[in-house]
Write a structure and sequence with these properties.
Structural class: alpha/beta
Number of strands: 11
Order of helices and strands: HHHHHHHHHHHEHEEEHEHEHEEHHEHEE
Distance between the termini: 51 Å
Number of helices: 18
Shape: globular
Oligomer: single chain
Radius of gyration: 23 Å
CATH architecture of the largest domain: 3-Layer(aba) Sandwich
Number of domains: 3
Strand content: 15-25%
Strand order of the largest sheet: 7-6-5-8-9-11-10
Length: 439
Amino acid sequence: MTSPSPPPSIALSHLLQHTADMVQGVREGRSLTDLLARVPANARAGTQALSFEVLRRLGGAQAVRSLVASKAPPPAVDALLVSAIALLWPPAPGERAAYPDHTLVDQAVHAAHQRTPAAAAFINAVLRRFVRERDALVTQAERQPVGAYNHPLWWIERLQHDWPAHWQTLLREANRHPPMTLRVNARRGTAVAYVQRLAALGHAAQATASHTVVLAQPCPVTLLPGFAEGEVSVQDAAAQRAAPLLIGDALPAQAHVLDACAAPGGKAAHLLELAELDLLALDSDPQRLSRVQDALKRLHLAATLKAGDARQPATWWDGRLFDAILLDAPCSASGIVRRHPDIRWLRRPDDIAALARIQAQMLDALWPLLAPGGRLLYATCSVFKAEGQQQIDAFLQRLGPGAARLDPAAPGHLLPLPDNASVAAAIADGFFYALIHKP
C-alpha cells in the first residue's frame, strides 16, 4: 500500500510544506481535522495522506532527528525535517514507498528553499545522511519504545498495564491503514446485494454481516452507488454494533429513545434504519448537531434534534422517561487512532482521568431518565479500561445491588487484534460496549 501521489498540478514540495504545517500544528495541540480544513482544496487530499503517514511514524522520525542533530532546529524547520524522515522510513512488509528517495530529498530541500532558505543545506545534509545510514539509524531509534511503537510513552505504558498479553499487537495495529467499512441502509438493501453492485463497477468488497461491507480499497464516497440517495453510509464495523445491541429483540415500535451524544449522527441514523422510533438526538455542540441533521436528511430519516449537555438534563429534558438510552460517551478515542493518527500525539496522560469523570457524570445523570424495564447502552471508542470496564464496574457499585443488570449480549472491550475472529476478522476499530437494564 502506498500514499496517494499528488495530482500533477501540485508539486510534492508544496505538499511537504503543508504537511510540515500539519505536524507543527499537531505538536502545538491542534486537531489535524481542523488544520486540514485550512489547506487549499486542491492540496487537501494529498496533504492528508502524507500527514497520516508522518504521524504514524513520528516517534521514530523524532528519535532519528535527535540522533543526527542533537539540538532541535526551529519548530518550522524541525517539522519539515521529521516529516521528510518519516516519509523516507523503510516501508512495512507488504507496502512500498510512495516516492523514490532522491525525489523526496530533492523536494524536501526545495520546500526548505521556499519556506526557510537558511535551513535548506542543513535539511539536505541530514536527509542524505539518513538515506546513507538508514538501517543503522532506524535500528537505533527503535531501541526506544516511542521510536519503536510511534506512540507517547505514557500511552504505551497504559496499554502494557491494561492489556499485558496484547499491548504490542495493539500498538502495531494502530499504525496500520484502516479498512473502509460501509453500512447498507437496512430499509434499502442488504450487504450481499450491495457487494454485487460494487463488483459491477469494478470495486472489490466483501459482506461481513447482513448490512456491513468492507471495501478492498478505500474510495471517495462519490464513487459509491446510491450514497447520495441514502442507500449506504460509511461506518466502522465496531460502531455498527451499537444500534442492534440497543434495539435488541424487545424494543417496541415508537419507543422513546435518547441518543445522548449524537454527533456526527451515524449511530442515530442506524437506529432509525432498523426500527420505527421516537428518537431524540442530543449533542452539546449545536454546530456538530447540524451534521446529524445532514446525515438524517441524506438517509430520508427523521428525529428530534436538541442541543444540550447530557450531564444537565434539567436544561433540556421534558420529563418523559426513555425506553432506551444510547450513551456514546466522549472518550480518548484510543480505539480509532489508526483512523485519526494525530490523537496519540494530542492526548495527555491526565486527559484519561478527566474524560472518565465526564463519563461517570453522564451515566449518573442519564440513569434516572430511563424508564423501569428500560436499557442503557454505554459505548466508547477506547481500548483503555478506565473508559470501559472499570467505568461500568464503578457505576454499578454506585447504583448498588439489584439496581441494574448487566446484559451478557454486550461484548465489553473489543480489541482490534488480527486473531480476533469475533469481530469480523479483526477489521473493526477498538470499542467498548456495556448494556445495562433497569428492573
